[in-house]
Design goal:
Layout lengths: L25 H14 L4 H8 L6 H7 L9 H8 L2 H13 L1 H11 L3 H12 L8 E2 H10 L4 H16 L9 E2 L12 H7 L15 H14 L9 E5 L15 E2 H6 L3 E2 L9 E5 L9 E3 L1 H5 L7 H14 L16 H13 L13 H14 L9 H6 L1
Antiparallel strand pairs: 1-2, 3-5, 3-7, 4-6, 6-7
Length: about 400
C-alpha cells in the first residue's frame, strides 16, 4: 500500500535551478529535459534511449491529487493498516532475515522494527511494489507544475541509472510517484544511498531483500537517525496534566515529564533524552512520548497519521503491546474540518491548504485557540471548539 514515498520529501532539499519549464506542451518539455541532461554531461545515446517511447500518464496526476486516506484519524488509520497477518509476517521476516537486520543495526544504527514497519506499509513486504511505469511517472510529475523542483532531478538520476544498466525505461515499474522497490526509493536516493546488500555487484531494490533493507537503513542514517535510541513509546498521563504542553513543538527532557507524572505503559522511560508528548486523538485517546528519532520519520513521509502509525507499528514489531485506544471525542467531518480551517485562517493562523486534513499547522492553531478560549488545549478539534469560533 503506497501513500507518499520514502524519499519523495527528502528530495525537497535545495536543488539546482530548473532548466526545463513545467507545464505546457509535453513534447516540448521532454525536449527541454533532454537539453538539461546534456548540460549535466550525459551521453546523447543514453538520453535518447531513456526518453524513447515516453508518455504522459494521467493516472499519475490523478493519484497525486487524491490522497484522501490521510483524513482518517490515527485509530482508524492504524487499525486499517496493522493486522494480525502483518504482525505475523513481520515476525517471520525478522527471523528469516535476522542477519540483514543485524547488519542494518551495526552499520547504520537503525532498528529492525522501523525497517520492518516501512517495508510492510510501503509494499506489504515486497508483494505490492506498484505497476506504474517509473520513467513515465517521473517525467509526468517533472512536467507538472506542483513540484517540478523535486521530480526533474529524479528524471536526471533515472537517466544515470539507465546508463549504468540498472534501469530499463520500458519495463521498470513502481509507485505512482516514481519510487522503486520494496522500500520504495526514488532514483536519486538509489544513486546516492543504495547498498549492494547481497554482494552480487548491483543494487536491486525490487528483487533483493538485503539490498532493500540496507538501502533503507542507509537512507535513515543519512537523514539523522540516532543509533540505539527509541522513537516512540506509549505512556499514561495524570488527569491533572497540562495539555498545553503537548505537541511535537514542546519537547523537553524526559526527566521533566517523569516529574509531571508521565509513566511508561511498558518498560521504563528513556533517560537522558528529550521527548514530546504526542496525543494523536487528544487527551482521551492514546498518548505517546515522541523521541528525536520520531522526527526523522517525517523525512520519509510528511503525513502525521502515517508517521505515527508506522512508528507505533515498529514498536509492536519489537514487542510493545497494543495501545490503549481510550475513548476519544469524535472526529470532525470533512466539511467541519474545512470550516474549522477557514475559521482558524480568518483569525490569522497559517493552516496551509484548506483540505480537511488535520496536519501539524492545523493542530498548532487548534491548540492556540483552545488555550485562548479556556478549553483543554490538547490540539484535538471538537465541535465545541468549532462552535466557539
Amino acid at each position: 500500500m503506497r501513500f507518499a514515498p520514502f524519499a519523495l520529501l527528502v528530495a525537497l532539499l535545495a536543488t539546482p535551478a530548473l532548466a526545463a519549464p513545467c507545464g505546457g506542451d509535453f513534447a516540448g518539455f521532454v525536449a527541454a529535459m533532454k537539453d538539461e541532461a546534456r548540460a549535466a554531461g550525459m551521453a546523447d545515446a543514453d538520453i535518447d534511449s531513456f526518453f524513447r517511447g515516453v508518455r504522459q500518464d494521467n493516472r499519475v496526476l490523478k493519484a497525486d491529487r487524491s490522497q484522501g486516506v490521510f483524513r482518517k484519524t490515527f485509530l482508524e488509520f492504524s487499525q486499517s493498516l496493522i493486522s494480525k497477518n502483518r504482525i505475523s509476517n513481520g515476525a517471520a521476516n525478522a527471523e528469516r532475515y535476522a542477519e540483514v537486520f543485524e547488519r542494518a543495526a551495526s552499520d547504520y544504527g537503525v532498528s529492525r522494527g522501523i525497517l520492518l514497519a516501512f517495508w510492510a506499509f510501503e509494499t506489504d513486504f515486497g508483494a505490492v511494489q506498484g505497476d506504474f511505469n517509473t520513467r513515465n511517472a517521473l517525467v509526468t510529475l517533472a512536467n507538472d507544475c506542483r513540484r517540478p523542483e523535486l521530480f526533474q532531478p529524479q528524471v536526471l538520476a533515472a537517466i544515470k541509472l539507465h546508463a549504468q544498466g540498472s534501469f530499463d525505461p520500458d519495463t521498470t515499474t513502481g509507485a505512482w510517484a516514481g519510487e522503486i522497490g520494496m522500500v520504495q526509493m526514488l532514483p536519486k536516493d538509489i544513486l546516492e544511498r543504495g547498498v549492494d546488500g547481497d554482494g552480487d555487484g548491483r543494487i536491486s531494490l525490487k528483487t533483493s531483500v538485503p539490498d532493500a533493507i540496507l538501502s533503507g537503513a542507509h537512507m535513515l542514517e543519512s537523514l539523522g537517525w540516532r543509533a540505539n535510541e527509541p522513537w516512540l513509546q506509549e505512556v499514561t498521563l495524570p488527569e491533572s496534566f497540562d495539555w498545553a504542553l503537548t505537541g511535537l513543538d514542546h519537547a523537553r527532557p524526559v526527566q521533566d515529564w517523569a516529574g509531571m507524572g508521565v509513566v511508561a505503559r511498558q518498560g521504563a522511560l528513556a533517560s537522558g533524552l528529550a521527548a514530546a508528548v504526542l496525543l494523536p486523538q487528544g487527551r482521551k485517546g492514546p498518548a505517546f512520548l515522541a523521541y528525536p528519532n520520531f522526527n526523522v520519520l517525517f523525512e520519509w513521509n510528511k503525513s502525521s497519521v502515517y508517521v505515527t502509525t508506522a512508528a507505533y507499528f515498529a514498536t509492536r514489531l519489537e514487542g510493545a503491546k497494543a495501545y490503549n485506544a481510550g475513548n476519544p471525542d469524535p472526529a470532525l467531518s470533512l466539511e467541519q474540518m474545512k470550516a474549522l480551517q477557514q475559521k482558524l485562517a480568518a483569525r490569522g493562523h497559517d493552516v496551509g491548504k484548506i483540505d480537511g486534513i488535520l496536519g501539524a499547522a492545523t493542530r498548532a492553531a487548534v491548540q492556540k485557540e483552545q488555550t485562548r478560549l479556556g478549553l483543554p488545549a490538547d490540539a484535538w478539534p471538537t465541535p465545541e471548539l468549532l462552535n466557539a469560533l
